[in-house]
Design goal:
By secondary structure, this protein is of the alpha/beta class. The protein is built from twelve helices and seven strands. It folds into two domains: 244 residues, 3-Layer(aba) Sandwich (Rossmann fold), CATH 3.40.50; 44 residues. The termini are far apart.
Length: 303
């Protein structure tokens, strides 16, 4: 089937497909987003961001070309991706051919966690316009992992080291930089519960990648590794994607401040808390600026 004849994807196809790569209806000259799925140990990894991209099409009034990719082997996109390649260099060549065939105006890669590593890796290999990575690792090297006490996916790193594919990229900071813009979104909440130290491995990885330059960091202090879920829960994901993908500004949905939070505001104001800091904290928890400011004014009256 020629790309021009590819039918539109729908939720049923995305959720029931047995393939590792899906291509949505192609409109040459529009933005192309290549979305990489995240890891799943219990079930086959899902495709990611399809629903969010459809929502963005509605908000922007423009079609978005979509290529959805998943790594069914949970090997951080270093082994076979059925329909693309057996290792990263082969997969990159197949994606490069797809980009040429689609002929988009801009190319963006996106992913979270394992998918974020792929978004950065293939984004740099393909010299795309921009990368949107939520909580990416910056390396898959065992030595680096032990140096930084990064043990979360050490088994994957050791498997790749013991049985390396024909090509591999185990430190993303070593990849040629080019003009690709990096957007790194990550939580900075301490990795250990109830910790008094601000130790967060995702922040470490983000700062390693930031050394490449042309990189914008988006830290979220009340999120841990699952920062996409945090942004969904606090109703900020759609506005962020609209800005980074389509270059448009839409209002964050925000939430209304609950009575419990109003009590928290009043208590902090009684203790001498700075009103502007309280507004900022409420916003970080997903409340709109207007409702946050109104809560602080109301809390001051109740203090």
């Amino acid at each position: 089937m020629k790309l021009a004849d590819v039918p539109p994807l729908d939720n049923r196809r995305v959720h029931t497909s047995t393939e590792d790569v899906l291509v949505d209806r192609v409109v040459p000259g529009e933005i192309l987003v290549i979305a990489f799925g995240f890891v799943s140990w219990q079930t086959r990894p899902n495709f990611d961001f399809f629903g969010r991209l459809k929502k963005l099409e509605q908000n922007s009034g423009r079609h978005i070309n979509k290529v959805l990719v998943r790594d069914s082997g949970n090997s951080w996109y270093h082994r076979k991706i059925d329909g693309l390649g057996a290792h990263p260099d082969e997969t990159a060549e197949a994606l490069r051919a797809l980009i040429v065939a689609i002929a988009p105006s801009r190319v963006i890669t996106i992913g979270q966690s394992m998918g974020a590593y792929a978004a950065v890796m293939y984004g740099l290999l393909l010299k795309v316009d921009s990368v949107i990575a939520f909580g990416p690792l910056s390396f898959l090297d065992v030595g680096q992992a032990l140096l930084y006490h990064e043990r979360r996916w050490l088994a994957v790193m050791r498997d790749l080291a013991h049985n390396p594919p024909p090509s591999g990229y185990y430190d993303l900071t070593a990849l040629p930089r080019g003009d690709t813009a990096l957007h790194l979104i990550f939580g900075t909440k301490p990795d250990q519960a109830n910790s008094t130290e601000s130790v967060n491995l995702d922040a470490m990885h983000a700062h390693r990648l930031a050394a490449l330059g042309n990189c914008t960091l988006y830290p979220y202090p009340y999120s841990g590794h699952p920062v996409v879920q945090h942004l969904i829960d606090t109703k900020r994901i759609n506005a962020l994607l609209a800005r980074l993908i389509a270059g448009i500004e839409i209002a964050e949905e925000g939430m209304e401040v609950s009575p419990d939070w109003l009590g928290w505001v009043a208590e902090n104001l009684r203790l001498g808390g700075d009103p502007q800091e309280l507004v900022a904290i409420l916003q970080q928890h997903g409340f709109s600026h207007a409702s946050s400011a109104a809560a602080v004014v109301r809390g001051g009256a109740d203090a």
